[in-house]
Each structure stands twice: as C-alpha cells, then as structure tokens.
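Lecture notes, structural biology module. Today: joint structure prediction for complexes of two components.
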Amino acid sequence: QVQLQESGPGLVKPSQTLSLTCTVSGGSTSSGGFYWSWVRQHPGKGLEWIGYIYYSGSTYYNPSLKSRVIMSVDTSNNQFSLILSSVTAADTAVYYCAREWGGKYFFDYWGQGTLVTVSS
Amino acid sequence: QSALTQPASVSGSLGQSITISCTGTSSDVGSYNLVSWYQQHPGKAPRLMIYEVFGRPSGVSNRFSGSKSGNTASLTISGLQAEDEADYYCCSYAGNSIVIFGGGTKLTVL
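The predicted structure, tokenised, for the full assembly:
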C-alpha cells in the first residue's frame, strides 16, 4: 500500500517562500509510469492542480502558478518537494501530495494534506 | 484553462440514484477519455472513485459509475447510502500535460 506524507511549516510570512516535502512509502519515486504531484485546496473551496514531477526530474506546472513554483525529487530518500515563492494570503490552503498515473492523469494515492497559512 | 463546471449541490434520498455532471470544453473533457472523479469527506483527503471516464478502482462500490457525452462527463451513484454524503470533484486532462478540476459538488443524502 502506497502512502504519502506531507511535511513542512504550517505558517509562512507574506512574500516569503513556502517549502513542503512529501515522503513516499510502499512505493518508489524512482519507478517509471507515475508522476509525483501537488494539489492544493483553499479553505472551503475546490481542488487546484499545482503540478507534477517525474522521477527523471521533468516537471509540468499549472500555468497560473508556473512563475512561482519549483518542484524537485530526491529518489534516494523517496521524497519530492514543492517550493512556492513570493506567497500571499491567497496561497493559504491545504496542500496535498499525490501519485498521478503518467499518461492517464488521475490521482490514486493522496497524502493527508497539510494546512499552510500565509500570515505575518 | 478554466475550471470544469459542476452543480454546487445535489441531493437524493436513501436508496435513490443521483447524477453529478461535469461540463468542460472540446479542449479538455471533449477531447480526452481522461476524466476522473474524487470523493472528499470533511477534513479528509480526496479519494479516487472513477478513472478514465468509467474505470472503477479496486475497493470502490459498483454503485458508482461514470460516463461521458461530448463535453460533459457524469458520475452516477445508485442506491444512495448515508456514507455517500460528501463533496465530489471531477478532473480532466486538458492537453499540454495540464490537469484541471471541477469546482466540486456537495452531495446531501436525505
């Protein structure tokens, strides 16, 4: 059973950088065929796809966030990460990491989510 | 890319059937059989219910079914049960390695 767990600060100051890590167990970030993804959910709102990274390091980002997003993968530690720069209150959300089937674009395993609040 | 359009809420009585629609465009839902559906209970992570329009993951009840016609995909839940009360989101591939979600539908079981 694949499990994903997000970790990182729950509070970030405006204009600073949000940094989250997702640790994968029961599966490998170095296995082909899967994209390792980030999805966020603003309080009381719907889901928003942020982007994903392949084990090779190839990345694909939501165009609306592309200028502020960097994703990376650490296959040796079975982790992948999200960096979102120049955050504002509008970036306050629950951030989920998820496994996405490459080429099929659905998410079969999700982390429990972590709330990140942007506030001074 | 704009979010896919879902009704804000639907309701149905125990044992009845309901259908949730998900309307996109010819650039996303209409072009690819890559629509998925997720169930989300309050405070929980989304759960995959349907993939590739009508595929059902292991462990998901056969009361859940998916379909698509043109630019609109649909999720049907038959034999409504109390535990089906949740938010439901559709998701579609939109080309250029981009994925978009619907705005979500709150299902109330009466």
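Point to remember: The interface with chain A takes residues 1, 3, 34, 36, 38, 44-48, 51-52, 57, 89, 91-93, 97-104 of chain B (CB under 8 Å).
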